[in-house]
Amino acid sequence: MESKELSRNGCDEKRKGGIKTMPFIFANEISEKLAVVGLAANMVSYLTQQLHLPAAQAAATVTNFGGTASLTPLLGAFLADAYVGRFYTIAAASFIYLIGMSSLTASAVLPWLRPPPCPAAGGPCVSASSWQMTVLYASLLLAALGAGGIRPCVVAFGAEQFPEKERKKTWSFFNWYYFCMGTTMVVAVTAVVYVQDNVGWGWGLGIPTVAMGISLVSFAAGFPIYRMMPPAGSPFTRLAQVAVAAVKKRKLPAQADPGLLYQNDELDAPISLAGKLVHTNGLSFLDKAAIISEEDGISSSGGAAASAPDLWRLSTVHRVEELKSLIRMAPIWAAGVLVITASSQLNTFFLQQARAMDRRLSPSSSFLVPPGSMAVFYLIPMLSTIALYDRLFVPLARRLTGLDRGISFLLRMGIGFCLYALGTLLAGFIEIHRRHTTSVGGPGVSVFWLVPQYAMFGVAEAFTSIGHLEFFYDQSPESMRSTAAALFWMSISAGSYTNSLLVTAVHRLSSGGRGAGTGWLPDDLNRGRLEYFYWVIAGLQVVNLVYYVWCARRYIYKPLKMEEREAAVETMTKV
């Protein structure tokens, strides 16, 4: 009877996961993106027109919110990998997100939570008071915390629904995850932004709030069919143990034979279900953490029968290689930071440019394109690139390279980096044309002149961000994949904050401290030199590209010894 029960449980586990879980998982991601993009794409408009903030302060607020929402995934990933698991982290974060969006909707609906409208007869507008801004920031903080639990876990949770033997489906998942996310963003920057500009911010924020509530219920409904890996303990503790052990044994001579370094399959089993990391020659100082000394009290070099060591004195090769893998990833991670300074312009100065242009569909049309909806010309090229890449380019490249993903993620990222530099350079020239052809008080040049720069950014995003996600997922230690996804969002966070500092510095230096109406980035772009700011960013992108190529050529891929461990995987994934 017991064997039949175990057999039935094993069959149940095999039936879990796979493509049937995707609607439940994607529903959660769709709602999160509908909320955050519907807000971020038009937040500059809300801050300047409803809260009456200066353009530079509004741009800084947008990038700071984006930076915070991209920093909190580190906390969510830590909880998921170490203690709670990805399912419960996503569910709890979705609930927090729902509270934040509900509070934000209330602040847009209730008149006493925002300043009075600007005087109809002209005159200065009253900016939001400190307590009104406090309500706004509290709502945004809750939304950022919710995003911190969803963003790093949804990617890893979705990918783990496919076992290692279905590797091709995993790489396709990343493309279609981003495609699904991009489609939602199209809806957000068109339908949601239109509602915000023409119906009201209460409805414009209320719609994604309701969607967030529905997604929480939908995600929870998929619980019986999810394939769930249990948390494997704090990854940061393991990394600290390796570092401390290496420092303690720093005076020991290096081990000439890597085969004598400490191995313990039983100890590493929960964190190496897909295969163990093998020894590499770089960063040899850390190898000292795996040297067996007399004080360790270990009589054998490994195996299931080996006694448990004090992990603050002795680490296994697998654990040492986990830390090595993360250290090797750091330079590639850093290269992604400056790219975000370029993409951050989509929700800040691209939006300001659109607002300063003729937004009519045609000279005889009375319909005005909402500035936030211009992002559709970024999203459609991005989605088209993803679809063509997955369906046409990858199968062809796979025949030539033998790689499941077609080309390496490092090459994919490099192509995106190059396109971002060219797109930012192009944006500067288009800004010159816009300013020179805009008549004072007239409609000026058509907003559709911005389409080329939006489109180039969209194609660049399809290469850069998906390549970045693939890189972090594939090269991170298996037990740290939520943490690795958080590193992706941390690069966005760091890039957003860098952009905010760059905007502040450029505005201060170019204006000489004379106020918001002067310098390269004044409230009235027709009096500024926005193209100079774009070219500063383009120059940084070129320098960053050179640095990235140097790092990519020297990168050492994670060495993994694949093992047949289906029984172990089934045991570890049982609910």
Describe the structure.
The protein has 2 domains: 10-230 and 323-572, Growth Hormone, Chain: A (Up-down Bundle); 235-322, no CATH class. The chain contains 19 helices and 2 strands. It has helices spanning 2-15, 22-40, 43-50, 55-71, 73-84, 86-109, 130-159, 167-198, 201-221, 235-248, 265-268, 317-343, 349-355, 376-401, 409-437, 451-475, 481-511, 530-554, 566-572, and strands spanning 275-277, 560-562. A two-stranded antiparallel sheet has the order 1-2. The longest helix is centred in the first third of the chain and has 32 residues, at 167-198. Mean pLDDT is 78; it is low at 1-12, 300-306 and 563-575.
Proportion of residues in helical segments: 55-70%
Give the helix/strand class: mainly alpha
Number of domains: 2
Straight-line distance between termini:
20 Å
* Total count of helical runs of at least 4 residues: 19
Q: Looking across the biggest beta sheet, what order are the strands in?
A: 1-2
What's the alpha carbon Rg, rounded to whole Å? 26 Å
Biggest sheet details:
2 strands, antiparallel
Overall morphology: globular
Mean pLDDT equals 78
- Just give the CATH class of the largest domain: Mainly Alpha
The named CATH superfamily of the largest domain:
MFS general substrate transporter like domains
